Amino acid sequence: MKKLLLSSLLALAAIAPAAQAHHVWLEQDGKTVKLQFGEFGLNQRETTPGLLDKFVAPRATLLKASGETALTLEKTAKGYVVGGASLAAGDAIVAEDNAYPGWETTKDGTTSQHIWIPAARLATSFAAQQPKLALDIVPTGTAGEFKVFYKGQPLPKAKVAITVPSGWSKEALADANGAVKFDLPWKGTYVLETAHTDKTDGERAGVQYASASHTSSLTVVQPKGIAALAAGPALAPGAEH
């Protein structure tokens, strides 16, 4: 089984707390949408008590052609339930936690602060969408084609992984315009993931930081195709792999 980790995430994991090798994603079951933390391809969803408790102030927003609406997030034993969303084709939900705990590194006697910003998007169709998150993956309007943006601008050569519930995954490199394309042979849910580290100094809540690492996902559903492969056995919350 391939691991749902980009090489850039592996580098991040070497200096960040272990939980930050995870990612967040949005998933829909009927009318219920949840924000999950763990590893989608390993069928791992963190819980409370546990690593889910590291989240400080996750926020979710409904994006429609008519405008944006703030949504509620209710913490449950396994993930956050997104409330107040009435989704139609072409809509999207985005979520992120800009207050997730940072960490320190020390080099040559100098201590530096670093932050991690996990984010996720759920798209209800392959209709073209505009970026909203700092690091964002959006559909382009063509099934299987997506585009990566950072701070509203295309992110060239971004590494993107696509995964299905069975654990199958594939990685590709975006072109000079941030565009990447994947085949979507199976019917069902796909989660794309990308990461980017900005080494520009900044400030959050009055604390200076040396770098900001972003991890972002996009959840899409392929309505047609061959029968989806069965999901693998669930990896226990907090377990390493």
TrEMBL record:
Keywords: Signal. InterPro entries: DUF4198. Pfam families: DUF4198. Residues 1-21 form the signal peptide. It comes from Massilia arenae. This is DUF4198 domain-containing protein.
